[in-house]
DNA sequence: GTCTATATCCTGATAGAC
DNA sequence: GTCTATCAGGATATAGAC
């Protein structure tokens, strides 16, 4: 646990990168091995099957999510705004692993679907704690998920539309929060 | 155009069904042919490649979308509410083809991504015509897209969460519309 | 721990009979 | 228009050398 083999981390990182950048179809074991700088056999020593590769990714995501939930709970702006704001971010550890698992889930990988449902429940619970109006909380969740939906789109879509406008969007979230 | 071969429609219908129900990976040409009750060779007479199969699906979607835009424009409740309300529906022609093309897009199929972007623009334009506040319109679009995101999830997720609660969600949309 | 070589399977596509 | 072979390519996974 304290000193995992370097190669193993490098392989998982390459796999996640390929999932995010090139889609699930491109993230084959051969391509992952090549990107990580090892051979197919070398990869299979650390991850004996493709399923174990996916499993390792999910575990990383759940760890990152646990840390994020604490940040979300203690965010000065409140959990709801924190959630929507971070829904547009790309590059962080959580975002990388989330997108990777999202790709797996969209490809029909059941364990990934379950993991995303679990994370979804964690977010919703924290937002509902802040926003007492149940339906306002759900609307805010949907806005964040709409942003994730765009992020998950291949190609140019993920980058566009928002960015500098995020502050204006957060004002809409404020309006939903303050039930008026 | 007026009398397309029955088998061709049956094949495309089987393909769309498999995309929606079992994901892009399961929608192979062999499985599609089997579901449509023809052989692989029979399928390839009507669709000479898998790409043409996807293309036919996109064309059907664009046709259904065109019809839907007219309904959206003349909806008594207004385009925004119409958009959010129909974002949860499953079973209609538009929803079936939309989900099918969404699956293709999520699999990295570029023409499908372009088609969804085009449809997205059509919806956004109509909502912005009703909701003058640009950012409120974008927030409403995101709610609808969040609903699509959930619909696109394989497994049980697509059915849950909303349904009877849709009316409450529409009240949140009303609040965003009436910029107060 | 890492590599090469190979086995097995599946998918999209072709050729040609009926 | 529809079928039965059949092929070429790619993917996961195994076996065994170093």
Give structural notes.
The structure is a homodimer of 180-residue chains. Chain A folds into two domains: 1-48, Arc Repressor Mutant, subunit A (Orthogonal Bundle); 55-177. In chain A, 72% of the residues lie in helices and 0% in strands. Chain A has helices spanning 6-22, 29-36, 40-46, 50-73, 79-86, 93-106, 110-130, 134-151, 166-177. The first copy, chain A, starts with 5 loop residues before the first helix and ends with a helix. Chain A binds chain B through residues 22-26, 103, 105-108, 110, 113, 116-117, 134-136, 138-139, 141-150, 152-155, 157, 161-162, 165, 168-169, 171-173, 175-176, 180, and chain B through 22-26, 103, 105-108, 110, 113, 116-117, 134-136, 138-139, 141-150, 152-155, 157, 161-162, 165, 168-169, 171-173, 175-176, 180. The structure holds a DNA duplex (18 and 18 nucleotides).
The number of E-state strands of chain A comes to: 0
Radius of gyration of chain A, taken over Cα atoms and rounded to an integer in Å: 18 Å
Class from secondary-structure proportions of chain A: mainly alpha
Largest interface: A-B, 45 and 45 residues
Question: Major sheet of chain A: size, sense and barrel closure?
Answer: none
Domain unit count of chain A = 2
- The level of helicity of chain A is over 70%
Give the integer mean of the pLDDT values of chain A. Answer: 92
% residues in beta strands of chain A: under 5%
Oligomer: homodimer
Coarse morphology of chain A: elongated
What's the helix count of chain A? 9
User: What is the CA-CA span between the terminal residues of chain A?
Assistant: 50 Å
Which segments of chain A are poorly predicted (pLDDT under 50) over 5 or more consecutive residues?
A: none
Question: What string gives the helices and strands of chain A in order?
Answer: HHHHHHHHH
